[in-house]
Amino acid sequence: MKRLSVLIVLLIAFSSIFIGCKGKEKAVTTDVPEAWKPTKPITIIVPWGAGGSTDQVTRVVAGELEGPLGQKVVVVNQPGASGSVGTKGALDAPHDGYTWTAGAAADMGAYKVKGLLDTTFDDWELFLNVANVSVVAVNVDSPYQTFADLLDAMKANPGQIPVATAGQLSAGHNAMEAIVKYTGVKYKHVTYDGGNPAVIATVAGEAEVTTQLAVEEADMLKGGKLRALAVLDDKPLMLKDYGEIPAITDWINDFKAAPNYFGIWVPSDAPAEVLAAFEEIWGTTIKDSQKLADYAAERGAVFNPSFGADAKKRAMPYLQIIAWNYYEGGTAAISPDSIGIPKP
Fold this sequence. Notes:
Blueprint (H helix, E strand, L loop, with lengths): L1 H29 L11 E5 L6 H17 L3 E5 L6 H9 L6 E6 H10 L9 E9 L2 E5 L7 H10 L5 E4 L5 H13 L4 E4 L3 H10 L4 E2 L3 H9 L3 E6 L5 E3 L3 E3 L14 E8 L4 H15 L3 H10 L2 E6 H21 L16
Parallel strand pairs: 1-2, 1-3, 6-7, 6-8
Antiparallel strand pairs: 3-12, 4-12, 4-13, 5-8, 5-9, 10-11
Helix pairs in contact: 4-11
C-alpha cells in the first residue's frame, strides 16, 4: 500500500511537470508576431513622368510585389522639382507602410546638397533593384558620328548645343555635368519632366543631344531614331538588338564611373513588421524575379537587388561623385561632407 501511494505521488508530479512544460511552450509561440499583411492598397509615388527609367522598373516591381503582399500596389506619377516633389509627398504621408517612393538613390541622397529637400539616406530604407548607365546619344540626323565630334562642336560653340535631360539631379543632368567637369565644355540645358520626354524631344529635333539612361533610350536606339556615341562607364555597353556602345573612357581616360542604383524607398521609421516583411519579399521574390532580370537584359540595365546596409553601401559611390561634382562646380547649397557624404 505504501509503495502504491509513492507511485501515485510520482505520477502526479510528472504530470504537473509535463503540463507546465506544455504551458510554457504555448506561451513562447504566442509571443511570436505574425507577418505583416497590408489591409488596403499600397501607393508607390514615382516622382518623375511616365515612361522614364524610374517609372519603367517601378511598374515591373509593383506587379511582382502584389502576389506576396496580397494587395494592389498602385504606381502614381508625381513629377516636379527634379523628383523632390513626389519624394516629399511620401515623406509627408503617414509612415505606416502604405506610401513609398522610388527613383535613383543618388538623386534622393543629393536633394539636401542641392537645397531641394531636407532629407538624406538616414530617413529611408533602400530597396534596390537595378543599376543603370547613362548614354550620350544624338538625333540620327545630326552630324556627330563620334563622341569626339560632339566634344569638338561643343568647344567650338560654347553654350549653343541643346542637351535634353529630365532636369536638375536627373541621370541625364548628372551625366552631362560629369562630362563638363572633365572637358570644360558648355552646353544649353533643355529640361523636361522625365527621361522619356527628354528622349522623345531629341528624336523630334527639339534638342540635338540627350544623356539620359540606356533604359530610356533603348527603344529609339533600336528603332534607328537615335545614335549612341558613348556610355558613361569604363567598359562598353552591349545593348541587345542594337550593338556595342563604346565606353566614355575611350576619350576621357580618367573618367570616374560608378553604378547608378534605382529602387524603392520606405520611411525608416515605418513599423518594424512592415520593414521585415519587405526585406523578406526583396530577398526572395524580387531577388529571383525573372521579369526584372528580363527587363534589365532588354534595356541595358544590371539586375542586382539589395536592401539594408548593403544597399546604402552600394549606392554611396555614385552619390559621392555627383554630390561633390555639384559642390565643386559651385551649384550646391551645402557641402556634402556636412551630411555624411565623404569626398570620393
